[in-house]
Amino acid sequence: MSATRRYSPLDRLLIEAQHALGTSLGQARAERPNPAGSLRDPALDVADRRHAAGLMRINHTGEVCAQALYVGQAAVARDEATRAQLLHAAQEETDHLAWCGDRLRELDSRPSLFNPLWYAGSYAIGLAAGLRGDGWNLGFVVETERQVEAHLDEHLGSLPAGDERSRAIIRTMKADEARHADHAEQAGARKLPQPIPRLMALSSQLMKLVAYRL
Ligand SMILES: [Fe+2]
Ligand SMILES: [Fe+2]
Questions:
Q1: CATH superfamily of 44-213
Q2: Ligand with minimal distance to 93 CA
Q3: pLDDT surpassing 50 at residue 1
């Protein structure tokens, strides 16, 4: 497995740069089938369509941020098991990213223009968290995933009534995020003190505000 291979600092930098570009600008490829499957695509009016696209754009950007956070954290994780866990979570987020991208296209919309910026900011936060040690690293995963779960719940309530395709994707994502949080908790996450959770909630509030439109 690649975990045993030794990468030079330059190798690592190039791998990270490639990941950053692929995640924030490229088209992700899912390993699992899209949970929307063959559910009917409802005929939404213009306003509902725009609203559903805004919510799915938020979710898409949220997944870009999650990947950047985990890859940043993994870059400085001290323990190999923690690094592997972070990279595995990042891999599952790729499915989420791909499914949200699919749904945006079905809604005749596109991802946020600012994804490279969100990626850079989240990567920096991931690095900072990772440098504080693995307990913090895992604590960040728990807090991120719990906050994402809460906002996915909001979206399930707010999506247009007939939009079962978006809902199916969000339900699967929500179950995955809960599992990511549980695993991190079991692996020894420490509880993050205030004001960190509050600051995380504030920055995701800002992201949601912008990504809903742009
Ligand atoms: Fe996710
Ligand atoms: Fe997750």
A1: Ferritin, core subunit, four-helix bundle (1.20.1260.10)
A2: 1
A3: no
